[in-house]
Amino acid sequence: ILCLRALSETSRVKVQLSSPLNDPCPHSCDCQHTQHLLCTNRGLHTVPKPGPWGTEDLHILSLGGNFISNISAYDFTRYSNLVQLNLQYNQIQAIDSKAFEKLSKLEELYIGHNLLSDIPVGALQPLKKLTILYGNNNVMKKITPELFTNLDNLVKLRLDGNEIEFLQDSVFKCLTSLNYLHLESNQLQQIHRNAFNKLTNLLFLNLSHNKQTAVRNVLVFSQLRSLTTLLLSDNKIQHVGNHVFQSLKRLSKLSLSNNRISRIDSGALRGLSNLRELLLDGNQLREIPAALLDHLEHIEELDFSRNRISNVDSLAFSRLNHLKVLKLKNNLLTSLSGDIFSLNKVLYDLDLHGNNWTCDCRLEDLKQWMTAAHSQGKLVTVFVRCHHPATLKGKYLDYEMIPTDGKKRDKSDQEGVEIQRDQGGQEVLDPSSFLERKKKNKDSSRERSRPSADAAGKRSKGRRRSNIFSRADPSDTSTPAPVPSIRSSTSAPSPITAREKFDLLKSSPQEALPVITDPCMFNRHYITNVSVDQVTSSTATVYWSSRNHHRYTPGPGARLEEVHYRVLFDRFGTADRFPRYVYAGGSARSVKLRELSPGVTYMVCVEGVVSGSVCQVAPRDHCAGLVTVSAESNQGPTLTSDLQLVTVATLVGNAVLLLVIGGLWVGRSMKKRLQRRKSAVHVRHMYSTRRPFRPAMATASVSTDFTSYQSSRPARLAPLEERDLIEFSCERFLDPSTARRDSEI
Length: 745
Prior knowledge:
Distance between the termini: 91 Å
Shape: flat
CATH class of one domain: Mainly Beta
CATH architecture of one domain: Sandwich
CATH superfamily of one domain: Immunoglobulins
Number of strands: 37
């Protein structure tokens, strides 16, 4: 009894200590941290009141995600030591002008995502230590300079997502320490020329997603001498005037994306000597003149995508020595000057996709520059997809190009015949005539000429003369034998008659093997059938094949040699990339990769080594993926056989089960049929014609007549025969007096 009394007394004391009256933590809040009162997403409609003690150490009060609609003058009187106050994602419509009067130590105030139409003048004046103020995503339409009085220490201000339409004169003059200003997603149509006055320390300014129509006033940004990022994207800007950015000496990023800019004055970018990134994508520019970008001495990235540019001056990028990334995709370009990028020594990312390229001799210099940049490892893959002429539509400049001026033409028909023009532009070989002639001689030359023609056709498709050419048989007098050297792109080809061309195609593959000098061309045209087999947890075998070729070694001792191969393999989709190479010896067409990691995805590419040099761009058409076997499942044939046995056993079990179910169904059906046959009743009532019919029996029941007849029949009589019987129909036994006769029986 004494023990029970002691336990009850202890419980009573604990209940008193944990009662709401003595607990400093407000109801529905979390007070696990002494300095942080967490009341987010608790369904509160008012600011909770703290307990009688314990608020001296409270520095953070989180009230986000509730239903508070009003902030009174007394809500925070007992939270005088707060450093951070979060009131975001509530339904606050009004704040008393004295609501923050006791929060002199507050440094961060978050009142975004509410329904505030304005902040009372003087409400923020006591917050002298405030450094961060979030008032974003409200419905404020106007801000005044008096709102920011005494906020000398404010560093970051967010007013984005409101409905502000106008920035008046010196509206931010009190925010002398401000570094970040967000005004995006408002309704700004007009900015006073002195609106950003006194913001000499501002580093970041976001004015995107507004309704500005022009940037012409040179005084608007004149005070922002420390600005490094200016975002003016997604407005309605149509014109950028001269010298509007001339005071932004430290600006490193300028975004004018997704506007309606159709004109940029020649001096609009003057003064941006430190600009690193300029974004002009999604506008209506039609050209890039020569002097527009000359002032961007340190520019590294230019984006002119999604404009209407059809003309780019050959000197437009001549002074951009630090340009690394240039995007011109989705414009109306048909050609570019060959030396337009010759002075951009560090350019490595060039995006020319989505233009109406005409793949003729006007792009020949550009293609040569791209090839040289690729071979030196200075440029990533550039996609120039042909739009004209129709025969090359959809193909890439890396593979196809035809001239249109009659100087030189490399074109292959479906049988691999090269069509050339003489100096007068006269076509000396008609592909249709050749095909007709070939058809006539099909029976006589099938075994000798057709394989050679097919091989020559495959090799000649998309071939550049400066890199790959055929070596004719010197003994063949009907065909001129070219010297094994690189032919100049300006030299005119000698006329070749139809007879000479046909004889060239009939030469044996060994006599007309192509000579390879460019490893990139070799990768594109001669490596085929890359595959991976025999994959285990640590090894895999890579197979490939190649067309016949020779490698030419220039110099005094010129000779023809075989091309060597190497296999690049690396982990796919991982951050820590470490490519490895395995070289194949001699004429080998397979390599076994060893020491692979189990359960890892690898990308494997095969490339050629020509004269000790390789293509700097991996051959994307000759790569294959493989996934090594995981360590747990690396049991070889045993695991495979076990799986096969399990599969076979499962199929046999299913078959037996189907047979059993079928047998049961058939037995049940037979049983039902037998039962129905046994239960069927065939009523045949027989009556003798030899015995006279008694009238007194007419009123008796049929059963009685039949019984008496059977019982009174003498035993000596002969058995009844079929002719002695009369069959009565069953309707007689359906007489209504059946119940009576049954009772008599």
